[in-house]
Amino acid sequence: MQSKYDLKSIIDLEKWNALQDSLSLVTQMAIITVDYKGVPVSRHSRCQSFCQAVRQDAELSSYCQKCDARGGLEAVRLNEPYVYLCHFNILDIAIPITVDNQYVGAVMAGQVRLAGNDDSRLEQIVSRPDTPGSTGTFAALREEYAQLPVMPYAQVESIAGMLSHLCNYIVEEASRKNEIMDLYQQTQAAPSAHIMSNKALADSRYIAVQAGDKEQSGAGALTGSGVPSLTTPAVPMGSCSNPVLQPAFDYIYSHKHENFTLEKMAQLCHISPSYFSRLFVRESGENFSVYISRLKMSWAKKLLETTELSINQISDQLSFCDAGYFIKIFKKHEQLTPAAYRSLVRGE
């Protein structure tokens, strides 16, 4: 199983780099993502010419690395974005990324100058003595330094907050998806002798709901209008072999009177519709629409067998758009109309 706290395993780096490039373009800030050790895991988006040159200088590059390391540590300590000045008084931001309160890495943004005297409130995180070499380098790069973006502090704060919320949300969601995938792979790897086959499990649900409806009908369990209740399952349904899908099966069997859409069931399971569809076929042996149609016909047959409800009432109870469509679907499944089926099972 991939580590839950390994940033490289959690995120899709290709998509992350594309997102980072877009954020850099919108915010006008240079951005790079590092893991909890401070090792870059993404490319450097929009790195400014001045900073590129300084980081390539043998004397000055070590001070840049110290700024990155100390900025990240301070952000972790505060558990919030940390805004500071580097050794050239250029603004940088360290944004910690956490999953379940565990520090997994940081987004480093910045390479901008503050407008006016706004930098008076910020700490220069690393001090550097002036040397002939550093003074000469700065003089040679004065034009590149002047081209650095200039922002007011209020704008920097807004960007820091936005990046923090967005990055942590994306990483946490990606982490949850990985957990679900790991859990599913574990269930798939379980010895077959200890789990029911997917098709047998699906068929057992039909048997259980039919037996439950018969028991409920025999006990006279009716609603106030004399219509058998379809809002709660007659008997508890068996657990789904894939726990990711369990919320969907629970909802289906406790809301027989509703129409079910794949999108809504996927939302209940907190996964995408396409992923839900794939898992559902593996679980039940058939696609979602076929499964629901067959299940609705099973419920319709029990109502025809055990109640005096009209065809229109049964159609309404099972949320078909009209009785004609219900009759068409029923005949497709049973090769009989609902009325003919009722007569047949009652020996009329």
TrEMBL record:
Every HTH araC/xylS-type domain range: 246-344
Official protein name in the record: Transcriptional regulator
UniProtKB keywords: DNA-binding, Transcription, Transcription regulation
Highest taxon of the lineage: Bacteria
ATP-binding as UniProt keyword: no
Segments passing through the bilayer: none
InterPro entries in the cross-refs: Homeodomain-like_sf, HTH_AraC, PocR_dom
Keyword Transcription regulation: yes
